[in-house]
Amino acid sequence: MSAACALSEAGLRVQLVERRSYLGGRASSYLHPGVGEVIDNCQHVLFGCCTNLAGFYRRIGVADRIHWTSEMTLIEPGGRRSTLGPSWLPAPLHSLPRFLAARAFTIGDKLALVRAFRGLMRPIPGDSAESLGAWLARSKQTKGALDRFWRLVIASALNADIDSIALPYAAKVIRELFMSSAQAGSMGMSTVPLGELYAGAVDFLRQRGSSVLLNARVESAAWDEETSRWTLITNAGALKSEILALALPFEAMAKLLPRMPAAKGAGGLADQLERHEHWPVCSVHLWFDREITTLEHAVVSASRAFAALSSEQAVAQALGELSEFFPAVRSAHLEKSALVKEVRATFGVSPGIDASRPASISPWPNCFLAGDWTATGWPSTMEGAARSGHLAAEAICRSVGEPRTILNPDLKPRGLMRLAGVGASRSKLGKGGPVRTSKTV
Ligand SMILES: Cc1cc2nc3c(=O)[nH]c(=O)nc-3n(C[C@H](O)[C@H](O)[C@H](O)COP(=O)(O)OP(=O)(O)OC[C@H]3O[C@@H](n4cnc5c(N)ncnc54)[C@H](O)[C@@H]3O)c2cc1C
C-alpha cells in the first residue's frame, strides 16, 4: 500500500492486487464471526520513530486517527504500578527520573540497566553475530532486569526470545524508544479499526487513476522480453504491467518463486528466503459489562505463553492474570471473548539475518521487492513494511529515469544524543514533479 500510494502520487498508474477481500495483510481488521465484532488482527502499536508509517498515514489523510501517548505503565502481580516516560531532561536522560523512581526495579536492577543502556550507545557492527541474550549475560544483568525489562519490553517488541534476537536490532529498539528523543519513543495506537485506515488508501489510489483489485491471488508471473511487459496470472484473471512490485510475506514469496521466470540470482533469493523463520503472536480480546481500568494500555509482567492453549484455556488464563492486575475484573461480567492465534505473525531477527534480507532490486527485469522482511534495517513491523514500500517506490522511479526521495527521513536525535553520532545519514534526492512515463505498476 505504501509503495502503491507513493507511486500513484508520483504520477504512475498502479494496480494494487490483494488475495484477500480486504487490505492490510497482517495489520488488518475484520469481522470476527464468533463475536460479531470488527477486531484488529491483534492490537498494533507504532512509535514516534516510525517515520515512514506516519508518512504513509499522512499521505492517505488518516494521520489524525492515531492517538499518541508517552507513558508506559508496568504492572506487577499484586497490582503495584510503575510508570515509565519522559521528563524535561535532555535525551538520553529524559527517561531517567521516572526510571529511577520505578518500584518494579531494585537498585541492583537499575544499575544493571543503566550499564546496559550505556553499552548499547556504542556503535555495534551491523553484522555482529552476538545475540541479545549472550550480550546481556556478558553485561551481568540481574534477574529482575532480565525478567521485567529485557524479556518483557524488548523481547515482546521484537517478538522473540532474547537468545534469538541479533544485538543490533535490540540496540536499535533501545536507542529509538528510550534514548534518541521523547518524540521517537512516544507510542501511537489507531483509534479506529485498522481496516478503516486503509479506506483512505483505496480512495487515494482511485482518485489518481490507480486501482485496487481484491480477491485476486497472484499465482505466477511471466516476463515478455519483446514487449517488456509482465503478465500476472491471478485466480481472478490475467493482468499486464510494465513494472512489477512484489510485496509478499517471505513464505508467500517462496511459494511464488518457482512460478517466476528463470533468472540469474533467483537461486540466491530462494536461499535467502529459506533462512527466514516466523514467530507466532496470540491475542485475547475480552468484552466486559463495565470498565475494568482507566488505563489506556499496560504492560503486564509474568504473562505466560498462550500459543499451546485451547481457546477456553487461553481465555481462562487471561482472565486469571487480568484479575491479578485489575481487581475490577473479579466483579465484572465477561460478555464475550475471542482468541486470535497468528502463527506467521513476524519474521525473526536472529544474528546474521541481514545477509538474507534482499534490497528492492530483484533478479528479474522491471521487478522490485518489498515487504517487512526485505532489507530495511527494521524488525518485523508496520514501519518496516511501509519503509520497504517507499524504498521499492524510489527504486522504481530511478528505473524509469526519474529519481526522487520518497523515504521519510529518520527523526533527528535530540539533546545530548546529537553528539553520540549513532545512526546513518542518507544522501538526498529532490522530491521531483510528476514522473514523465506512461508505465503501469
Ligand atoms: C498478531 C500480530 C501483531 C503485530 N503487532 C505489531 C505491532 O504492534 N506493531 C507493528 O509495527 N507491527 C506488528 N506486527 C507486524 C506487522 O503486522 C507486519 O510486520 C506488517 O503488517 C507486515 O506488512 P507487509 O506488507 O510486509 O506484509 P503483510 O501484512 O503480510 O502483507 C502482505 C499482503 O500480501 C497478500 N498476499 C500474500 N500472497 C499473495 C498472493 N499470492 N497474491 C496476492 N496477494 C497476496 C496478503 O494477503 C497480505 O495482504 C504484528 C503482526 C501480527 C500478525
Task: From the structure above, extract its key features.
441 residues; three-stranded antiparallel sheet; alpha+beta; globular; 14 helices
Task: Going across the biggest sheet, name each strand in turn.
Answer: 4-8-5
Largest sheet: 3 strands, antiparallel
Alpha carbon gyration radius: 23 Å
User: Span from first to last CA?
Assistant: 12 Å
The amount of beta strand, in percent, is 15-25%
Ligands: flavin-adenine dinucleotide
Total count of helical runs of at least 4 residues: 14
Integer average pLDDT: 92
Look at the helices and sheets and give the structural class: alpha+beta
The percent of residues in helical segments reads: 25-40%
Q: What is the general shape?
A: globular
Spans of 5+ residues with little confidence (pLDDT < 50)?
A: none
Please provide the count of β strands. 17
Topology (SSEs and partners):
Layout (H helix, E strand, L loop, with lengths): L1 H9 L4 E3 L11 E4 L4 E4 L4 E3 L3 H9 L6 E4 L2 E4 L5 E4 L11 H6 L5 H15 L10 H7 L4 H15 L9 H13 L2 H4 L1 E4 L3 H14 L3 E3 L4 E7 L4 E6 L2 E5 L2 E3 L3 H7 L9 H9 L3 E11 L10 E2 L10 H15 L8 E14 L19 E3 L12 H18 L17 H4 L21
Parallel strand pairs: 1-9, 6-15, 13-17
Antiparallel strand pairs: 2-3, 4-8, 5-8, 6-7, 10-11, 11-12, 14-16
Helix pairs in contact: 1-13, 2-13
